[in-house]
Write a sequence for this structure.
């Protein structure tokens, strides 16, 4: 099983940008679908987006489309989440996840159960 560690979170102001990283170890992620989720206090875990093994296919939640971008560098075994135009509503614990299933642009890949491995999360807090 692959181990995942997120980093790059912090406290920023509304309108700022952040880039989160998800570093993998234990296995090469080059054949994994990689996803990002977030969970705000008192709310359910929310799908942000995912990317197929090559980085050529991506799927985003409507809530972040146009503001967030997922990319991956398989040579570095790392996945990124670039977040722009942040608002207080983006405050949450952000997780990356890895799936061995084939990538698909359906609701199945937005579900937490689609993914086999999870990181511990990195906190993003956005002040108004």
């Amino acid at each position: 099983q692959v181990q995942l560690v997120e980093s790059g979170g912090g406290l920023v102001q509304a309108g700022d940008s952040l880039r989160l990283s998800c570093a993998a170890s234990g296995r090469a992620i080059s054949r994994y679908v990689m996803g990002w989720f977030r969970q705000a206090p008192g709310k359910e875990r929310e799908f942000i987006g995912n990317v197929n093994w090559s980085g050529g296919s991506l799927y985003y939640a409507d809530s972040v489309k146009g503001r967030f971008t997922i990319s991956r560098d398989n040579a570095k075994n790392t996945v990124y989440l670039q977040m722009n135009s942040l608002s207080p509503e983006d405050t949450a614990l952000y997780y990356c996840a890895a799936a061995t299933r084939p990538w698909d642009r359906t609701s199945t890949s937005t579900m937490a159960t689609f993914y086999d491995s999870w990181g511990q999360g990195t906190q993003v807090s956005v002040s108004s």
About this structure: The chain is about 0% helix and 50% strand. The chain has a mean pLDDT of 95. The radius of gyration is 13 Å. The first strand starts at residue 3 and ends at 7.
